[in-house]
Amino acid sequence: GRFAGFSLYISNTGDRDSSSLCYKDRPELPPLSFTTTCTLSGRYIIYYNERLDGVTYPGYEDSTSVLTELCEVTVNGCRKPGVYGSNCNILCPKYCRYRTCHIQNGTCFGCEAGYTGTVCATECPDEWYGFDCKQQCSGHCRDNDPCNKANGTCDGGCAAGWIGSFCEKECRNGTYGYGCVNNCSGHCIGDSTCNKQTGYCDRGCKPGYTNSLCNKKCSSGTYGKDCAKKCSEYCLHNISCNYIDGVCTDGCQNGYIGNICNTSCEHGRYGKNCSHTCSSNCKTCKHTDGTCSCHAGWSGPNCSITCNNSYGENCKYPCDPFCVNQTCDRFDGTCQHACPDSNKNCNVAILEDSGSNQKEDTYTAGLSVSIGFNALLLAVVLFLLWRQYTKLHSGAIKSCWESSLYEKSTHIDVPEPTYQELDLKENPYQNNN
User: Are 50 and 109 in contact (CB under 8 A)?
Assistant: First the structure.
């Protein structure tokens, strides 16, 4: 009907435009007995219903004209805000918004920030704040304290890694801690930022740094990731290597090459940066200073000295003293000049007295032949005796074997041994080296 859609305003001036809306009716027809409560204070109550020419008001039965018929209007209220009851002598609940409440039952029309309930007597639960407790705290207050339930701020400050009025902002990259006043070490692996709460490098440190903050260099003698590698012991002057990559900054000791001096010279090379070639006369060559174990015929630290009156590896064997001038081949020791008996090494002595030598050789030969012949005869006799003994004591043995030696030696006259005293020259022998 034409009564629907009206509005009520509270004002101190009578001007609707400067008034506060108290109630707005819907397009449906309101009940005949209508009661509403306004939580505002003012000198005037303005009733207003609008039907403007040329304006369509959807949902209204009659959108062209207005009919207002008020049989009775009663306005009840207390002279001052903040009280309620039949005598307006009861204070509204403490946390009612604007300290106003229903003038009859004292219920709050809204609560102060941080409180909820019909009489605003219940604090917001932890992690919530504001009007009607509809806003959530940041969750980053220091020591996990709840935020202020009225405005959401962290009264005790922010947790490490957070800043802002509500502790809602993370520390910028490269900073950490309470108030974000600490700088990261800058040595986290992969140039990653440190943990904004602790400053730790959660993924580890760059090579050359250690501890949780990665702010400590490797100690002397170590390098690399987690300082787990040891510098080469062959850095020049025993100076410690670079703590990041292990490079020997002053180079390598003789006999070693490579950035970290961990490779010895290849076979046949020696010295600083392995720049020297071992002598071809070396059998083995020390990679540090080139000292050699020499092939036959050579000696000296670099095997550059030929053997003199000696021969073999490192000239360690002396030529035979019976070589002419004690000279011999420096490789195999053969005498360079022939000996009277054509002995290559001249290591058999020749006695000076040829006459006595001949006589002594005759005596020696005769004695040797006699001893050898007598020994042979003794062996034959012993064998025959053993054969006879075996034959007498082996009657149960039918099989036997025929010895050709037995058949051919049925009778042997053993001559009586003869001896001859030799008149030998004193010292008939000579030792050879």
Answer: no
Element (H, E) at 368: helix 354-392
Phi, psi for residue 103 in degrees, rounded to 5: -70, -10
Averaged pLDDT for residues 22-41: 76
Strand partners, 222: 230
Q: How far apart are the C-alpha atoms of 20 and 29, rounded to whole Å?
A: 23
Facing residues of 270 across strands?
276
CB 128 within 8 A of CB 134: yes
Give the residue carrying structure tokens 């108030």.
Answer: 179
Residue at token pair 């060559």: 285
Domain spans in the chain, listed from the N-terminal domain onward: 1-75
Instruction: Tell me the one-letter amino acid at 236.
Output: L
Report the b/e string of 38-60 with b at 16+ CB within 10 A. bbbebeebbeeeeeeeeeeeeeb
Asked whether the beta carbons of 136 and 128 are under 8 A apart, the reply is: yes
Residues 6+ apart with CB under 8 A from 182: 175, 176, 199
The CB density around residue 115, as the number of other CB atoms within 10 Å, is 24
Segment 191-244, tens digit of pLDDT: 899 999 999 999 999 999 999 999 999 999 999 999 999 999 999 988 889 999
Cα 1 from Cα 4, distance rounded (Å): 6
Q: Cα–Cα distances in Å, from 430 out to 345, 347, 349, 352, 433?
A: 16, 11, 6, 11, 10
Flag whether the pTM goes above 0.70.
no
pLDDT of 239-256, one tens digit each?
889 999 999 989 999 999
What H or E segment, with its residue span, contains residue 391? Answer: helix 354-392
Is the C-alpha dihedral spanning 185, 186, 190, 193 positive or negative?
positive
Hey, which residues does 264 pair with through a beta bridge? Answer: 256
Alpha carbon distance, N-terminus to C-terminus of the chain: 152
CA–CA distance, 146 with 1 (Å, rounded to integer): 54
310-311 and 305-306 strand pairing: unpaired
Distance CA 390, CA 410 (A): 17
* Separation CA 24–CA 16 (nearest Å): 14
How far apart CA 73 and CA 76 sit, in angstroms, is 10
